[in-house]
Each structure stands twice: as C-alpha cells, then as structure tokens.
Amino acid sequence: MKAIVVTDQAAEAAGITLAERPGPAPGINDVVVEVRASGFVPAEWEWASTWVDRSGRERTQAVIGHEFAGVVASLGYGTTGFSVGQRVFGITDWHRDGTLAEYAGVEARSLAPLPGNVDFTVGASLPISGLTAWQGLFQHGRVRAGQSVLAHGAAGAVGSVVTQLAREFGAYVIGTGRAADRQAALEFGANEFLDLGHDDLGEVGGVDLVFDVIGGEVQRRSANIVRPGGTLVSVVGPVEARPADGLAIDFVVESVPSQLTEIVDRVRDGRLRTHIGTIVTLDDAIPALNPTERRKGKTVIRVRP
Ligand SMILES: NC(=O)c1ccc[n+]([C@@H]2O[C@H](COP(=O)([O-])OP(=O)(O)OC[C@H]3O[C@@H](n4cnc5c(N)ncnc54)[C@H](OP(=O)(O)O)[C@@H]3O)[C@@H](O)[C@H]2O)c1
C-alpha cells in the first residue's frame, strides 16, 4: 500500500516520504480500515510517540497521521460491533502506524460509525480537534452554562470547536488569536475577541476557564486571570503556570466513540462547523505536511477519491 512515512526528525520536511509499505494485519480486537481521508496535526512531528514505541524502542519509518474517516476492510480475531464495509471514523493509537496510508490498523474501541451523509473529508477533520475541545471543556474543565471561557487560538482547528461548543453550552466566550483572526473567531461564535499581539490579557478580568492551545508566555499570563475555583486546561504539554487559587490540567486527547457521535451529530444538524484549511491528495500531500509551515485550519489528506 502507499503510505507517508517519516525517516529523520532532524531532516524535518526532507524526512517525509511517500513509500510502498505492507498493509497492516488486524490484531486481536482490531479493525483494518480502508482510509478515505486523514487529518494531520503538524505538531505530530514533535511527539515522542512518532519516534519511539511504548517500550521506548526506536520506530523506523513510522506512518504519520492519526485521525481518519474510512470503511472497515477486515476484522481481527474477537472484534465485535463493526462489519466489513461500514463507514467509521476516529483516532488511532499514537505509537502505532497511522492513517496517511491506504489502510490502517485501529483498535475497535477507538471507532465510531460515520453517518452516511457526512463526507469522509469532513469526518477526518473532526476526531482530534473535536474530541480535544469536548474533553477539555466538559471532562477536564467542567464548564457550566453562565461561566466564562477564554478560548485561545479561537480561529484554529481546536479553538474554533472550543468556541462553538462553549457557546452552545451557554458559556460566554472570549476568543483570542492574531489580529487577522478576529473575524473568523467572531464567526465561530466568540462573544468578543482579544488580539494577543496588541491587547492586554489583564484587561479581561477573571474567567472560569482558560483553554490553552499556545503555551509559553501566553499560558503564564493566562493563569493570572483564572477566577478562584476556576481551571486552566492546556493541550500543549505539561502546564508551566498554575492559577493562584484554581486548577491546572494538561491532557492528551483520547478516542471516545460516544463523544465522536456527539460531535458528528452536531456537524450533521449544523450546530458545529468544522474548520478545514487545506485539502490535498495522498500523492500530493508532502508539501502540505511541512512541519515548519503555518497553515490556517485543519489539513485533510484525501487518500482515495
Ligand atoms: N494534547 C492534545 O491532545 C492535543 C490535541 C490537539 C492539538 N494539540 C495541540 O494544540 C495546539 C493547537 O492545535 P490546532 O490544531 O488547533 O492548531 P492551529 O489550527 O494552528 O490553531 C492554533 C491557533 O492559535 C494561533 N496562535 C498560535 N500562537 C499564537 C500566538 N502567539 N498569538 C496569537 N495566536 C496564536 C494560531 O495562529 P497562526 O496559525 O497564525 O499561528 C492558530 O490560529 C498544537 O500545538 C497541537 O499540537 C494537542
């Protein structure tokens, strides 16, 4: 099968190649998916799981990409709940060969059915940003109606979903980003917008929840504006700054089928809009995967027409 593999972290874009690889064999409780489309998060390049397995051994020629939409091609021993030909979407294990390939092996417990009227390209754009927003807001941030949320990077892939879901659940949302992101953040539903290059975070007063997708100095300044009893949730590594009288949580998103269904239901009925910035084919994908290039919105790779 065709697959996009990485060979050398130091080589950056030059270490990404389109290669011919053996297709995956389904393990116990696995599904092999014929991938139709795959999302891509540029920071994957920096994740340890791209380069070592769960025992710390070096991974050679790892297939990158971890979110996908496709069709079940075969079932492993003992797999229940899915049938060959079924449309599915989800996230594959970070340490396992991924989804920028014609086929991917994935644990059945990580999959949800993809409704027939949702395009594979849309389905592939949802799992990582959708679940990250859902889990950060509701599981870790425990946001409630009437609370205030500072949604960093509100025009980005994760931040745009954070903004929409927080509004839907009755929160007041202050979106942040660069000056050029203002209109997009407001269109995703932010009640107001803060330009991080110009406005002072301190002017915000107190918020109940900060959703951090940026880290560094922005995170440090954000910790100071969390109200007593509030929470700073970060998805960019271990939290470096804690609110004086609140919680700080960092997490890595997990594939939870019931939450995938909540998300895709919202896309179907128009409550949620996905933010796809770039769509390319697998054969033409490599320039779009350059980890040093910034792109607006989610990059989706169409693996099959
Ligand atoms: N832990 C997890 O499970 C998890 C899951 C998903 C994502 N993540 C991480 O979350 C981060 C965001 O992911 P994403 O897919 O949402 O990326 P994205 O689409 O690039 O969104 C990030 C947004 O924040 C903006 N931004 C970044 N730095 C900024 C700054 N200093 N000032 C103002 N705006 C700034 C970006 O603007 P520009 O494009 O102009 O820079 C962009 O609009 C990544 O680091 C990713 O690895 C973690």
Automatic annotation (TrEMBL):
Pfam family for this entry, one: ADH_zinc_N
InterPro entries: ADH-like_C, ADH-like_N, ER, GroES-like_sf, NAD(P)-bd_dom_sf, YIM1/Zinc_Alcohol_DH_Fams
First and last residue of the signal peptide: none
Residue intervals of the Enoyl reductase (ER) domain: 11-301
Top-level taxon of origin: Bacteria
GO MF annotation: an example: oxidoreductase activity
Protein name: NADPH:quinone reductase
Naturally occurring in which organism (per UniProt): Amycolatopsis saalfeldensis
